[in-house]
Amino acid sequence: MSGYKVAPFSNLVDKFEMLPGIGRKTAQRLAYFILGLPKDKARSFADAILDVQSKIKYCKICKNITDEEICSICKSETREKSIICVVEEPKDVMFLERIGSMEVSYHVLHGVISQINGIGPDQIYIKELLSRIEKENVKEVIMATNPTVEGEATAMYISKLLKPMNIKVTRLAYGIPVGGELEYADEITLQRSLEGRSEI
Amino acid sequence: MSGYKVAPFSNLVDKFEMLPGIGRKTAQRLAYFILGLPKDKARSFADAILDVQSKIKYCKICKNITDEEICSICKSETREKSIICVVEEPKDVMFLERIGSMEVSYHVLHGVISQINGIGPDQIYIKELLSRIEKENVKEVIMATNPTVEGEATAMYISKLLKPMNIKVTRLAYGIPVGGELEYADEITLQRSLEGRSEI
Question: Is A86 helix (H, G, I), strand (E, B) or coil?
């Protein structure tokens, strides 16, 4: 298996292949597409890559991504500042914001506590969350970390730190997905769904 | 459906989304990945995109992509110059070269004749193929355009032009794929496979 190689092309294929979920064949197809783009479009693609790196920073308050000092959510005057929703990654904020009904503030941890990956509480933005709570008048913290072992553990860790501060700590509800069918739910989810049942 | 937007990030998501086969969710995941890359890696990705545009040109002889005036295949002294394999796109050369057993030359048409898309014989590199054949001592032309209606029509068109020049024109064999099962082959393929049967 040898093959015809053109250095700049192979190089771009390699770059695409390093992206998550992109295999060799797809990487080749994408590189071909780039090759066929008008010059200005290819340049604006390259610029977009550089811009996302140079212009995006973490909000000084909530650590969400932003291109300003303080993100638009933290700046907003209509947002409920006394409720902070804690998430793992900036993309979680985007997902939650998409439903549009959460008029709360956020705090992005940028990871979870994970012994396996050697990530301790000091390596994610927990300290910053605590100092926010000390300074601002926070009534409730909603833990919205992922329902994984590590997400759970991180939520538990943070909630233990918050209890002495007399703050209400809540967790997103577990249960069967809307539109799903009971028989396809796993047992743990079903168990949690049962525990979290509510009166109708 | 609104959502939290950061201009440089949304911009990169848009760029990824314009790539073939990449939807919104994947585009977001890729943009996140880029956001998390070390600066030098992001820069080399951007450079790779610019390089593929600025450094790659068409070989003066066969119109395959190359970063030199003449591609390595046309330059090679061990290649059989009297057999030219005609393909639609540069990627077809890469695919054929991967099997490694084709020690032939190529000619890349960069498209097919297509009435629907308004592409006539003059808009693909047919003229250049003919002048190559006039100048070089070509004995055989292998038509390796795709087995589509347009690929077929283009192959037929070219073969009619070549016949008066007293050149052997061949076509890649049609048939059932190796490892495939008869019952999954479509009828036309099976018909062609029967027509092209050989003695064992």
Answer: strand
Total number of domains in chain B: 2
Residue linked to tokens 């601002």: A136
Interatomic CA distance for residues A94 and B29, integer angstroms: 12
The answer, for B2 touching chain A at a CB cutoff of 8 Å, is: yes
Work out the average pLDDT over A70-76.
93
- The CA distance from B108 to B95, in Å, is 13
A105 and A193 assigned to the same domain: yes
Q: Averaged over B114-129, what is the pLDDT?
A: 94
A1, A5, A6: best to mutate for the B interface, most B CBs within 10 A: A6
Q: Which domain holds residue A131?
A: 75-199
Tell me how far apart the alpha carbons of residues A177 and A17 are, in angstroms, rounded to a whole number. Answer: 34
Answer yes or no: is A93 within a domain: yes
Indicate whether B23 and B110 sit together in one domain.
no
What does the pLDDT look like over B17-35, one tens digit per residue?
999 999 999 999 999 999 9
Any A CB within 8 A of B60 CB: no
Inter-chain residue contact B48 with A2, CB threshold 8 Å: no
Residue B80 belongs to domain with CATH number = 3.40.1360.10
Question: Do A20 and A94 share a domain, yes or no?
Answer: no
Chain A residues in contact with B93 (beta carbon < 8 A): 4
